[in-house]
Design a protein that fits this description.
The chain folds into two domains: 229 residues, Rossmann fold (3-Layer(aba) Sandwich); 115 residues, Nucleic acid-binding proteins (OB fold (Dihydrolipoamide Acetyltransferase, E2P)), CATH 2.40.50. 23% of the residues lie in helices and 36% in strands. It has a six-stranded mixed sheet, with helices on both faces. A five-stranded antiparallel sheet has the order 13-12-11-14-20. The longest helix has 18 residues. The chain is elongated and about 75 Å long. The chain is α+β, with helices and mostly antiparallel strands and 354 residues long. Pfam families: ABC_tran, TOBE_2. Keywords: ATP-binding, Nucleotide-binding, Transport. Belongs to the ABC transporter superfamily. It comes from Mesorhizobium amorphae CCNWGS0123.
């Protein structure tokens, strides 16, 4: 079929009459860390369930290692799933939990124990073999669930919001550990989350989903810097969106009429086309000395100190409905009530055609 490890081909799914996936096609490469990112109801968890064999799609096919796995049950396909609630057996030791999948495969007790110890060492819990799950912290239980999934050596590891139950500091720590473990074992990870920062920290392949469709996919750097759609620009990080109409188009440059004024930038949209321009917060400049594209003036409504920068909200004086979202330097003296010039550089403006 394909050199891809996973090939999702034209998959659609309905719950009753309600469509939750709409003609989704996606390829997953060996050794990749793929994040399915999107809001609640976007279809990402349903897609993960189809990959794991817990749901059979209404239409389409799922191939894993070139074999049609669309109707293959979870226990017989080369995938394992790590759930948000860990799903550990409380009456079993950690070692027995990790070795449970091997037990179901008929592996003998001595081999199970040896491989369970190896898997626990891989996730930094070599001394936890004889403990019970209730004796471990949330982060440790998460790692036990990961060891249990990895010990059976799946071709694809599926993770359903695995860090959602952890506090912020532990989530950051587990992100680092997940990425390091994935690099060590080389297994393809497919991880569902609605957390954009988590996606950017972990993924080398980011898939942005919305309303049952894939809006955008690619390396997280590209998806963030040059999002393909308006939704992707506003969900994968924040953006200021300028709506406009193309008034001139020649030599692969377009001029767009926007509320703050005319803006020229590279593009090929036809004259009269309604388009949107996106600008990331770190690319907006406050003050008289700024970028090459003037965006008028704005009145500051809110300033929030966030450590390395200040997050500034400011309403355009030309169009009060236009809200600028700015990452200003931490030392900036801007405060609510100030009216200040806003600008950016032409190369930092993203032209969206939807």
């Amino acid at each position: 079929m394909s050199a891809s490890l996973v090939d999702i081909s034209s998959v659609s799914h309905r719950f009753g009459q309600h469509p939750v996936l709409k003609d989704v096609s996606l390829k997953i490469e060996p050794g990749s860390y793929t994040i399915l990112l999107g809001p609640s109801g976007s279809g990402k968890t349903t897609l993960l369930s189809i990959l794991g064999g817990f749901v059979t799609p209404s239409e389409g096919k799922v191939f894993i290692r070139g074999e049609d796995c669309t109707a293959v049950p979870p226990a017989k396909r080369p995938t394992t799933t790590v759930f948000q609630d860990y799903a550990l057996f409380p009456h079993m030791s950690v070692g027995a939990n990790v070795g449970f999948g091997l037990r179901m495969q008929g592996v003998d007790a001595a081999t199970r124990a040896a491989r369970a110890r190896e898997a626990l060492a891989l996730v930094g819990l070599a001394t936890a073999f004889d403990k019970k799950p209730h004796q471990l912290s949330g982060g440790q239980r998460q790692r036990v669930a990961l060891a249990r999934a990895l010990v059976i050596e799946p071709a694809v590891l599926l993770l359903d919001e695995p860090l959602g139950a952890l506090d912020l500091k532990l989530r950051r720590q587990m992100q680092d550990e997940l990425k390091a473990i994935q690099k060590r074992v080389g297994t393809a990870f497919i991880h569902v989350t609605h957390d954009q920062e988590e996606a950017m920290a972990l993924a080398d392949h980011c898939v942005v989903m919305n309303d049952g469709r894939i809006e955008d996919e690619g390396p997280p750097e590209r998806v963030y810097a040059r999002p393909a759609t308006r939704f992707s620009a506003t969900f994968m990080g924040e953006s200021t969106i300028l709506s406009g109409t193309v008034t001139e188009a020649k030599n692969e440059t377009v001029t767009v009429a926007t509320p703050p004024g005319a803006i020229s930038l590279p593009g090929t949209s036809p004259v009269g086309a309604k388009i949107a321009l996106a600008i990331r917060p770190e690319h907006l400049v406050l003050g008289a000395t700024g970028g090459t594209i003037a965006l008028g003036t704005a009145t500051v409504s809110d300033v929030v100190f966030q450590g390395s920068f200040k997050r500034v909200l400011a309403a355009s004086t030309q169009d009060p409905a236009l809200q600028f979202i700015v990452k200003a330097p931490a030392a900036a003296t801007v405060q609510p009530g100030d009216t200040i010039a806003v600008s950016c550089n032409a190369g930092d403006i993203i032209l969206l055609t939807d």
